[in-house]
Amino acid sequence: RIVQVNYAYHPDDTNPDEVLARYATQTRWGQAVLEAGAGGMAVIQGFHRDATLTRNGIEYRLVAREPSLAQAMMDLRPDVVHIHGLGQPRRVWAMRRGLPAEAAVAGQDHGGVSRGIPGPRRLVEWLTYRQGLAGADGFFFTATAVAESCGGRD
To answer: What is the rounded CA–CA span in Å between residue 138 and residue 104?
Structure first.
């Protein structure tokens, strides 16, 4: 089972249908993976309240609080976790700790992480990212330039 995780949500979205419409690439990606033969697909999505729905064979769990998100992840028992955005290194680290060792974790950066280290505050921030993102087994990026800004190589 593959589970996508997206912590972000827009506060103007007042119902689950608005959330799914806003993150349409997430829903379309999930549908494509399911159609390609994945054994199961689920999405854990940040929201202002908890809600669960199923659309086109994909289970969506919208969660409002950190403990609910962690519990949803454990309940789904994923084989692969796809985390949208790398701006939450502590969450990636905590998620890894709650998953079985054999579950793979892949993080996707959407252009929000940089390794520039201009001073001590940035060094602490960089070390936090390094430790937290060590919980992921791999990463993928929306463009080569984004990967290079994160220290990626060909």
So the answer is: 8
β pairing state of 80-84 and 2-6: parallel
pLDDT for residue 120 is more than 50: no
Single-letter amino acid, residue 72: A
Q: 65: phi > 0 → left, psi -120 to 50 → alpha, else beta; which?
A: beta
83 pairs with which residues across the strands? 5, 107
Tell me the C-alpha distance between 140 and 9, whole Å.
21
Taking every pair of Cα atoms in the chain, the longest distance, rounded to a whole number of angstroms, is 49
| Residues 18 and 57 sit within 8 Å (Cβ to Cβ) | no
Token code pair at residue 62: 């919208």
Residue 86 contacts residue 139 (beta carbons within 8 Å)? yes
pLDDT surpassing 70 at residue 153: no
User: How far is residue 132's CA from residue 88's CA, in Å, rounded to a whole number?
Assistant: 8
Q: What is the pLDDT of residues 48-82, one digit of tens each?
A: 999 999 999 999 999 987 777 778 888 899 999 99
- List alpha helices for the chain, DSSP H: 16-22, 24-35, 66-76, 89-98, 120-133, 144-149
Q: What is the number of other CB atoms lying within 10 angstroms of the CB of residue 32?
A: 11
Which residues partner with 84 through β-bridges?
108
